[in-house]
Design goal:
Oligomer: homodimer
Distance between the termini of chain A: 46 Å
Largest interface: A-B, 44 and 39 residues
Radius of gyration of chain A: 20 Å
Shape of chain A: elongated
Structural class of chain A: alpha+beta
Low-confidence stretches of chain A: 1-11, 226-242
CATH topology of one domain in chain A: Nucleoside Triphosphate Pyrophosphohydrolase
CATH class of one domain in chain A: Alpha Beta
Order of helices and strands of chain A: HEEEEHEEHEHEHHEE
CATH architecture of one domain in chain A: Alpha-Beta Complex
Mean pLDDT of chain A: 86
Number of strands of chain A: 10
CATH superfamily of one domain in chain A: Nucleoside Triphosphate Pyrophosphohydrolase
Chain lengths: 242, 242
DNA sequence: ACAAAAGTGTTTTAACTACACCCATGG
DNA sequence: CCATGGGTGTAGTTAAAACACTTTTGT
């Protein structure tokens, strides 16, 4: 597949640098009422991998930070502002793209369901269930898989789950987020207790009316900064969006 | 839209891509006998930041993976092979370097004490205590601080501690690693139990002779892959070294 | 015999699990 | 008044922390 001329040519040129973003949102299945993780993909309109679905992304602009470039990916594909944005990993394998050496710094983002509902879909932008996103262009299958792993880890320890929801939410909604990410049911009683102690949530005096059952209390997230761990003391870049 | 003028313009403003590596090793203080974390730094022999100490690194070669470039950093500065190598973070702030836009993909590595003792020191390569590495070039102070945080996190959960040591080690040596990284003393009795259950270590039938006290048993690490979490299923690059 | 580190045992405490039970609402 | 999800209580299990205690070496 690679002629020797191709290899020498590759050695000569500096690697291209691109930013891609994995955007996660929660959607509630109308049928079962269960929460699921979705992500938007864009259809490639050029070679290589023409016609395949791929992560939103593009070259890094000369005068924007990595984080800004990732946020721009969101805006340009879905008109959304992220509620959470964190660097995922830098992928730089030699065989990622056939024609040129490509290094991609990948971010992952969370958006709220109300935002995701507003997001535009078009011929070349479509939302997929994370579990059904396969056959993507380049190595994007693996990138999505790794992003899901990271999400899994972050939700257990950190305070990421809230960023899937609005500023007011019920504990059952929050539990739905955990269950969708972890992929297993959680005991409602224990889940409630675990959050009451230690986590940064506070009960409001409001309840959610209109349901079929007893109106659940609404809570809000009080953790000041929706912080992403990586650049602990803001290394001049990549400050996560609150 | 893609005229040659545009291409050259893009090339002109395209960020430079470099790989740097934070190399950690353990050294036992001759006086107190306590373990401490050290790292090698190289003196800059050009502007900018001429004369300051900096992390080993350099531009990414056209035909090497990111991981390979990081391993090359180790070889070129210290003649060492890493026992552990993991991607840390990609730093890409606009103000990282004065003259040009610079994106650095930073790795961190662990080496064994016997390797570190063999590592050459020179006029322009010197080892520093991690706690005393300050005033470095560029944003390397922050990068080192973040690498220490990551090390801290990895040692609590993962199986990273063993890579500071040789293939045979006493539990007290291993506890020394934990104490040096975590910065607090640990109960020897509980530490022993915690490792016996769950962690991948096995007792050998050998003991370490020559000490002043009762000879401690030697253990070895049986975890097959010294794995780093990031690319869970080897995204065509960056496989951590065993 | 003594000091000092290796190694074992035991008690206490906290956290998580599982599950029984009561409460409030719409139909 | 019944079904359904919201919310509380409680016993059993498991893991970790604190610390007393025994063992083995060199001097």
């Amino acid at each position: 597949m690679y002629g020797s001329a191709n290899v020498t040519e590759r050695q000569a040129q500096a690697p291209a640098l691109a930013i891609s973003t994995v955007i996660f949102a929660l959607r509630t299945d109308p049928g079962s009422g269960r929460s699921e993780i979705w992500l938007p993909l864009v259809r490639r309109i050029r070679q290589p991998h023409l016609g395949k679905w791929a992560l939103p992304g593009g070259p890094l602009g000369g005068s924007e930070s990595l984080q800004d470039a990732a946020a721009r990916n969101l805006r340009e594909t879905t008109d959304l502002e992220p509620t959470y944005l964190e660097q995922l990993y830098a992928f730089g394998g030699l065989d990622r793209a056939a024609t040129q050496r490509l290094v991609s710094i990948v971010y992952w983002a969370l958006v709220r369901p109300d935002q995701a509902d507003l997001a535009r879909e078009s011929e070349n932008v479509r939302w997929f269930r994370a579990s059904e996103a396969a056959g993507l262009a380049f190595d994007h299958d693996e990138i999505v898989a790794y992003a899901l792993e990271r999400l899994h880890g972050r939700i257990e320890h950190g305070s990421v789950a809230y960023h899937f929801l609005g500023d007011r939410f019920t504990l059952t909604q929050l539990r739905g987020v955990f269950e969708a990410v972890l992929g297993r049911p959680l005991d409602p009683a224990n889940f409630r207790r675990q959050l009451r102690s230690a986590r940064d949530i506070a009960a409001t005096d409001e309840v959610l009316q209109g349901g079929r059952n007893r109106p659940p209390r609404l809570y809000r997230y009080t953790g000041q900064n929706a912080q992403a761990p990586p650049p602990a003391r803001t290394p001049a870049d990549d400050r996560p969006t609150s």
